[in-house]
Structure prediction request, 309 residues.
Amino acid sequence: MIAAAFYKFVALPDFAALQAPLLAFCEERGVKGTILLAAEGINGTIGGEAQPVREVLEYLRRDPRLADLEHKESGAARRPFYRMKVRLKKEIVTLGVPSVDPTRIVGTYVKPQDWNKLLDDPEVIVVDVRNDYEVALGTFAGAVNPQTRSFSELPAWVRNHEGLRQKPKVAMFCTGGIRCEKSTAFLRSEGFDEVYHLQGGILKYLETVPESESRWQGECFVFDERVAVGHGLKPGNHDLCRSCRNPVGEKEKRSELFVDGVSCPACYGQKSPEKQASLRERHRQMALASQRGEEHIGRRLEPKKSTDS
Prediction:
């Protein structure tokens, strides 16, 4: 099994017409995942057997507008997704500032092998533009955490955070690069002159930079059944809470508020008794299916909705 993540900002005025043929192509090959289409481009993460996944990527590249579509690929011990969705959106990653156009202006790309040098620059403030539950799993030492719950909260944080202007340079990073395309474009539109971002995101850094030289601390949350990955994109040590879809590690699992398949410390007490009973029954059915060597996908919750690739 493999997982492939990709995105491209490009004018797709006919994006709605692309939905049905693309969904059919994926389903015919047993490929699962989520692909977002919008007038501004495409954003997706898909998974399955290697050959079918690569056939989908080749299908996308047959469109001249997507001919140079790049993707990041990693192995998966189990199926990364359980359903296939092709959705139409206003934005392929939701910032909520219509004037921002990454095809016109973005920050300066920094290759993974050059990122450490930027981290050491005393004139740079480094910002992790991911959401708080992602940052909690891992980040670069010294990075500023905006503590956002969604990407659309970032513009307000930028406008209210005076510390961003205390140094002449701002460097931003995210999981796969797509959020940085918009966040750096937004900063440029707000008058920031020297803005940089990690090309290919954290995933490319973990894939490219040797662990002995890495400045990354912890694991990187990914939006599929692997939950998180570490150096070399090896699967990490977290699972998903099947109630709220937050990542749970050994610390959360030791909590008396953790009930496998029902709750974790982040969501304990938030579900009605009826919902808790439903979650317990679903967990029981999943366990029975696992014992039979089957995949139980009837009411299985997908991981958190991706805003990155």
In short: The radius of gyration is 20 Å.
